[in-house]
Amino acid sequence: MHHLVITKLKKMQKKIYLIIAVVFISSAAYFGKGDRLINYVDPFIGSGGHGHVFVGANVPFGGVQVGPTNFNKGWDWSSSYHHTDSIVKGFCHINVSGTGMSDLGELTIMPATGKLMTGAGTQNNHMAGYSSLYYKDKESASVGYYKVHLERYDIDVELTATERVGLHKYRFPNSEQSRVIIDLGEGSADRPTETYLKKINDTLFQGHRFSTGWAVDQREYFSLIISKPVDDFIIYDRHKKFKGDERKGDYVKGFLEFSTKNNEDIMVKMGISTVSSKNALENMMIELPHWNFAKVKKEAEQKWEKELSKIKIKTNDLKKKRVFYTAMYHTMIAPNLYHDLNGEYRGTDKIVYKDSSFTNYTLFSLWDTYRAAHPLYTITHPERVSDFVNSMVKIYEHQGKLPVWHLRGNETNTMPGYSGVPVVIDAALKGFDNIDLEKVYEAAKVSATGDFEPGVKDLMELGYIPADYMVESVASSMEYAIGDWGVAQLAKKLGKMEDYKYFLDRSKAYKQYFDEETRFMRGKLSDGSWRTPFDPVSAQHRINDYCEGNAWQYLWLVPQDPEGLIELLGGEEKFNEKLDQLFSMSSKLDEGASMDITGLIGQYAHGNEPSHHTTYMYAYSGEPYKIADNVRYINNELYTDEPDGLSGNEDCGQMSAWYIFSSIGFYPVNPSNGAYIFGSPLFDKVEINIPGKKKFQVVAENNNDKNIYIQSVSLNGENYKYSYITHKQILEGGELKFVMGPNPNKDFGKSKKYRPASIVY
In angstroms, rounded to a whole number, what is the distance separating the alpha carbons of residues 286 and 426? Predict the structure, then answer.
C-alpha cells in the first residue's frame, strides 16, 4: 500500500513538473520577461539544401566571419561549408553567406598533431593532408560561437569573434608534435596571387594574402598571436620547405610547432585589415587585448541580443520563433565592416583612404538585397543606413559608378541592373541624415546613363535593348527601369523636372518587351521583330533573354508601375486571371534551367529574388485577399527550422528579409516608394523599436492557421481602409491592428481609392 501511494505521488509529481515545464516553455515562447532571443537563433538553418549560409562565429555586420571550411564540391559549398559534409580543412576568417557563387573562405588556420602534413589533402583522401573528420553530434553553433571536435587529432575547437578579430581556443591532447598551421594558399574557389608570412617573435606572426576569383583583386592582411610561445617555426611554399622566418610566394604556409599536455588549451587570435598587417595588429590590440574567451563570447551574444531585440514577436509556436529570429540573424551577416579602427580602408581603386566621418562597408549583394533587405534596414537599422549609402557613394567616387555586386573592395559586376540605385534612392527619399542628396543623385544618374552596364547605351538610343546585342536583355532592361523610376523621384524632389520626365519615361521601357499576342515580355531583336522560338517556361541559364528565370517569372517584374502592367494585360480581370495561372500551373522546367529557380509554386519561384514581390501584386488589381493564401503557404512550407529550411540561396539576407516582412504582415513591393503592402500576418503581435524611443506594434486578432484573411484594419484605433501602410506612418509609432478571419473580405482594398499607388512620396 505504502509503495502504491509513493508510486502515485511520483506520477503526480511528474505530471506537475510536466505542466510547469509546459507553462514555462509556453510563456517563454510567448515572449516572457527575461527571454533571450539569441536562444532562438539556429545558425545551421539554411546550411543544408541550397541555402548556402555561413556557419561560424561573427558579430552583427562584422568584418570577420570565422568558421569551418570544407573542401569546395560545387555550388552548394559557396559559403565554404555545407551541413551534409564531414571533413574540415581549416578555420577561415572571411566568408560569404548565401551567395550563388563561391569565393573567400580564406586566412585559414588549423590545429593538428603528429606527422607534419604540407597540404590539406582532398575530399577523397583527407588523410593525405592535415584535414580532419568531424561528426555532427560533436558540432554546435550559436550566435557568436562555434564548436567542433576534430576526430583525427582529438582536438576540441571553439571559435568566437569581435568585429575585426577571430578568437580560437584549441584543447589539445598530450603530444610532442602539436602545431597550428597557417595556410595562406587555401580558399574557396579562388586562386592566391601573392602570399606572405613572417615570424615577428615567438608569439606574433604577420602576413597577407592577395587573390583573384570572383573578387578579381582581393587584398587581405593579418596579424596572428598565439597564447603559447612556439618551439619552432617552419615555412613551406606549396610542398617545398624554406629556411628563415619569412617567405613571399604563391602558396605559403607556416607551421607553429610546440608540445602540449593533455587537455591543454592553446588560444590563437587573428586580426584582419585590408590596409596593412600593422593595422591588423592595431585592430586586434584595441578590440581584443586579452585572452578571455568567455568574455568575448558573452560580448558577441550581447551584441546579437541587442540587434535581435529591435523586433519582438509574440507566438506560442517555437518553430516559427526559431525561423523568425534566425532570419533576423541572417540579415545581419552582411554587409561587412570594411574599415580599420584608425579610419583607414582600401578603396575599389586600391588606394588607401583615411576617413572617420563614416563607417565603410563591403559585400553588397544588391540585385538581391535592394528588394527587401535594404528597406528592412531602414526600419531595423536606421543608424547604419547612412553608412551603407555613404559606402556606396564612396565606391561610386572610386570606380565611377554605384556598386552592382561589391565583394571585399572589388566590383564583380554580377547580375543585371544597376541595383545600387534603388538602395541609395530609397534612403534619400526617406530623409536619412548625413546623406548628401545631390551627391546621391549624381551617383545614381551617372550610373544610369554612363557606359558601364551592358545595353544602357542601346536603351538610351533605341528605347530598348535588342536581344541580338546581348543575352538577358529583357531582364537587364526591366531592372534598369526599376532604378530609373527611383532616379525620377529623387530628381523631382530636387527640382530637376527635366530629368524627372526623362527617367520617368525610361521607367516605362518595359512596355517595349510586351508582346500582345503571347501576353509576355519577350526578347526583341534589333529589327523590331520578336526572338523566336518562344516558350514562356523556358529558362536556359545565361543563354536566354531572362536572368535565372523565364517569361512567366519576369512578366511581373514591374514593381514601379503595376498600373501600367495591368493595362498591358487588358485590365484587372485579365491581370488577375494571369496571376492566378502563375501560381496554379505546372512547376515543370526544361533541361538547362538555372539552379536558382527553386521554391516553385506553379511557375512562381520563391527561391529566386525576381519573384519575391509577385504575390503582393494582387493589391494593385483589387484582389488583395489572394495574397494571403500564397504568403501563408510560403511562410509555413518554404521556411522551416531545419538545415534545408530555405528554398533557395539566402543571398546575403534577402531571402530572410522577405520572411521577416511577410510574417509581420506587409512587404515593400516597390523598394523605393516608401509603401508596404499588406499580406497575412503570421504572429499574434509584433513590436518594432522605432527611433525616438517609439514603438510600432502590429496586432493580429483572431489569428491562427485557418484565419488567414484580413477582415478589417485599424491604425491607432481608427478604421483604416487602405491595403498598405507608409514608412512615414510606421516611424510615427502606434498600433496597426488586423482582424483576421477564415474567409476573404473581398471588399477590403478593392476600391482604387484605397489601393497602393506607384508613387507615395
Answer: 36
